[in-house]
TrEMBL record:
<feature type="active site" description="Proton acceptor">
    <location>
        <position position="182"/>
    </location>
</feature>
<comment type="subunit">
    <text>Homodecamer; pentamer of dimers.</text>
</comment>
<dbReference type="InterPro" id="IPR040442">
    <property type="entry name" value="Pyrv_kinase-like_dom_sf"/>
</dbReference>
<feature type="binding site">
    <location>
        <position position="84"/>
    </location>
    <ligand>
        <name>3-methyl-2-oxobutanoate</name>
    </ligand>
</feature>
<comment type="function">
    <text>Catalyzes the reversible reaction in which hydroxymethyl group from 5,10-methylenetetrahydrofolate is transferred onto alpha-ketoisovalerate to form ketopantoate.</text>
</comment>
<comment type="pathway">
    <text>Cofactor biosynthesis; (R)-pantothenate biosynthesis; (R)-pantoate from 3-methyl-2-oxobutanoate: step 1/2.</text>
</comment>
<comment type="similarity">
    <text>Belongs to the PanB family.</text>
</comment>
<protein>
    <recommendedName>
        <fullName>3-methyl-2-oxobutanoate hydroxymethyltransferase</fullName>
        <ecNumber>2.1.2.11</ecNumber>
    </recommendedName>
</protein>
<keyword id="KW-0460">Magnesium</keyword>
<keyword id="KW-0963">Cytoplasm</keyword>
<feature type="binding site">
    <location>
        <position position="114"/>
    </location>
    <ligand>
        <name>3-methyl-2-oxobutanoate</name>
    </ligand>
</feature>
<dbReference type="InterPro" id="IPR015813">
    <property type="entry name" value="Pyrv/PenolPyrv_kinase-like_dom"/>
</dbReference>
<dbReference type="InterPro" id="IPR003700">
    <property type="entry name" value="Pantoate_hydroxy_MeTrfase"/>
</dbReference>
<keyword id="KW-0566">Pantothenate biosynthesis</keyword>
<keyword id="KW-0808">Transferase</keyword>
<feature type="binding site">
    <location>
        <position position="116"/>
    </location>
    <ligand>
        <name>Mg(2+)</name>
    </ligand>
</feature>
<feature type="binding site">
    <location>
        <position position="84"/>
    </location>
    <ligand>
        <name>Mg(2+)</name>
    </ligand>
</feature>
Length: 265
């Protein structure tokens, strides 16, 4: 099983092969996804919501995300691992962006980094790519700017479509090897996909993109509370684990566990 490289993404687009991605924040899930043949794993700052217990991705720091990224990168043998640059770790300058990207490469040993923003982030993407680090862009709905955008709002609708395309083109021109399109109308995502040479990875962007990405705790039915419309739930891990823990508690309470088969002579 040959490691996935950036050229795999390009070949996939050119040959019409769909790219698959999931988020991962730990070694156990990363190993399962890698063995199942998922092409890339994103150590997303959605760890803020799914690991660290924040309401948004805004408070997540580089120091918090790097140990999680190390666990994921160390677990895979094939999948391409992307470290998500947190809010506040790249906006200030291209130098700051490169500094953060280098930390992810050296301390977490990921294979690429991702950062949010199109035109506004192009100079940061360029600087990181010029240092030999692959960059995945991210346009459309960008959770780190949730408060600036006024909430979880679909981007690129109507008149905003032209700006979405311009953002994606800026990411490509800056040297990114792929770009995430989050929560945009399917028709707009299709236009972006046709306009770009690099592959588009959709998350809530409809079917006319080059690949699909989901937050793993959403797709596996682990997440509590509201899950976005675009998520298809492939499992009910919350139900499975609730059942298991309830039976464990009952067995201990009723002294059915441990039995002789679980005890040492
Ligand atoms: O952090 C994350 O999970 C993401 C994806 C949803 C694009 O950035
Ligand atoms: Na993210």
């Amino acid at each position: 099983r040959k490691r996935v490289r950036t050229r795999h993404f390009q070949n996939a687009k050119e040959n019409g092969i769909a790219i698959t991605g999931l988020t991962s924040y730990d070694m156990l899930s990363a190993r399962i996804f890698d063995e199942a043949g998922i092409d890339f794993l994103l150590v997303g700052d959605s760890a803020g919501n799914n690991v660290l217990g924040y309401d948004t991705t805004v408070p997540v720091t580089v120091d918090e995300l790097i140990p999680l990224a190390r666990g994921v990168a160390g677990a895979v043998s094939r999948a391409f691992v992307v470290g998500d640059m947190p809010f506040g770790s790249y906006e200030n300058s291209a130098e700051e962006a490169l500094h953060t990207a280098v930390r992810f490469m050296k301390e977490a040993q990921v294979h690429a980094v991702k950062l949010e923003g199109g035109v506004r982030s192009a100079d940061k993407i360029r600087r990181i790519v010029d240092a030999g680090i692959p960059v995945m862009g991210h346009v459309g709905f960008t959770p780190q700017s949730e408060h600036g955008l006024g909430g979880h709002i679909i981007q690129g609708r109507g008149d905003a479509e032209a700006a979405l395309i311009a953002d994606a083109l800026a990411v490509e021109a800056a040297g990114a090897f792929s770009v995430v399109l989050e929560m945009v109308p399917a028709a707009a995502a299709q236009k972006v996909t046709e306009a770009l040479r690099i592959p588009t990875i959709g998350v809530g962007a409809g079917p006319h993109v080059d690949g699909q990405l989901l937050v793993w705790t959403d797709f596996a039915g682990f997440t509590t509370g509201r899950v976005p419309k675009f998520v298809k739930q492939y499992a009910d891990l919350r139900g499975v684990l609730t059942d298991a823990v309830t039976r464990f508690r009952g067995d201990v309470a009723e002294r059915r566990y441990p039995g002789p088969e679980h005890s040492y002579e």
